[in-house]
Amino acid sequence: MESYTLTINGQSKQVTVDPSTPLLWVLREELKMTGTKFGCGISACGACTVHVAGIATRSCVLPVSLVGDRPIVTIEGIGQDAVGRAVQDAWVSEDVVQCGYCQSGQIMAAVALLKSIRKPTDSNIEQSMGGNLCRCGTYIRIRQAIKTASQKLL
Amino acid sequence: MPYRRTRRLHRTLLFIASVTIISHAAAQNSAPPTRGSGLAAWQQVYSVLTHPRCINCHTATNYPQQGDDRHRHLFNVVRGPGGKGVPALNCATCHQDANAESTGVPGAHNWHLAPLSMKWQDTNDNILSSTQVCQSLTDRSKNDNLNGSGILRHHQQEPLVLWAFQPGHRRDGTARSLPPLTHDEFVAATKTWVAAGMPCP
């Protein structure tokens, strides 16, 4: 077991865990931040997506020992900036969500996309969001919500 | 001849013989390798470059490869404009600066695809010939303007090259296969090839 000080959503959090513990489980089990979801555990589905130093990251395969001092943003904190808020609002206005399980990861991915490409094309959306799976098939609404958020941000 | 003069003569002759032998050896070592030696060394270099640990990222396509069977990288990963993936699905989305042994994700600093100019496969994922790879590697319009010293330095120091020789373990704990040479052997073969003038077959 080792102690780590993590910066999560702007706040400093201390945990003592095995160094090999994936960040996902540090968030969910140690810090009780259950907004980030376990979908597959092998970085295949994107449900566990958080931002680490601004990069959309699969927390299920990131051992806490490799985080270092990079700041982390989770779904709980994504509304703290304009892009995050725009995406959240668009998700509501476009009624994207069905079961909701994948949507934390979808939102985190969408925010990462819009922070990099403010007016993404359909091709941009397909490539960037193609790693986030939705078994309910809300892809069409996700695409529209990204475009709605983009319009609001332009 | 008096004993002392004899001993002095023997010591002198021994010294002259030693210098001659050392000079001859030095002359042999400083002579550049022959074209034949260079080609043999190149084949050793080629054997490493076309091993999955290297060639999986030297693709001709819009995607990297994975595994010893070099299948297309799972999870809809794509090359992206700079070979680092696309927003929200970068290489760094999963690949960190070091191997993640507990989760089986390989990692090294600045994980990314080689540029298309350094493709060592065709668009059907078939490995290019020794001649084709050699010509590509030595084409300064394709290799980021590297001369022989630059190529040698790349083989010696580039983190992603070094990673190939310490690729870590898969999630099930099995070790990833290694290139057919050690890193030291790979560098030595590169040196010989460069010293021979980087001949291509």
Any overview of this molecule?
- The complex is a heterodimer of chains A (154) and B (201).
- Chain A is α+β, with helices and mostly antiparallel strands and 154 residues long.
- Chain A is built from five helices and five strands.
- Chain A has two domains: 2-73, Beta-grasp domain (Ubiquitin-like (UB roll)); 79-153, Orthogonal Bundle (DNA polymerase, domain 1), CATH 1.10.150.120.
- In chain A, the strands form two sheets. Chain A has a three-stranded antiparallel sheet with strand order 4-3-5, with helices on one face. In chain A, strands 1-2 form a two-stranded antiparallel sheet.
- In chain A, a hairpin with a 2-residue loop joins strand 3 and strand 4.
- In chain A, helix 2 packs across helix 3 and helix 2 crosses helix 5.
- Chain A is globular.
- The model of chain A has no long low-confidence stretch (mean pLDDT 98).
- In chain B, helix 2 (35-49) packs antiparallel against helix 7 (183-195) and helix 5 packs antiparallel against helix 7.
- Chain B starts with a helix and ends in a 6-residue tail after the last helix.
- Chain B has a two-stranded antiparallel sheet. Chain B has a two-stranded antiparallel sheet with strand order 3-4.
- Chain B is built from seven helices and four strands; from the N terminus they run H-H-H-E-E-E-E-H-H-H-H.
- Chain B is mainly α and 201 residues long.
- Helices cover 42% and strands 4% of the residues of chain B.
> How does the major sheet of chain B shape up?
2 strands, antiparallel
Helix content of chain A: 25-40%
Q: What is the averaged pLDDT score of chain A?
A: 98
CATH architecture classification name of the largest domain in chain A: Orthogonal Bundle
Tell me the strand percentage band of chain A: 15-25%
Distance between the termini of chain A: 47 Å
Determine the number of helices of chain A (DSSP H or I, runs of at least 4 residues).
5
Q: Describe the largest sheet of chain A.
A: 3 strands, antiparallel
Largest interface: A-B, 31 and 25 residues
CATH superfamily of the largest domain in chain A: [2Fe-2S]-binding domain
Low-pLDDT stretches of chain B are: 24-28
Q: What would you call the shape of chain A? A: globular
Strand order within the widest beta sheet of chain B: 1-2
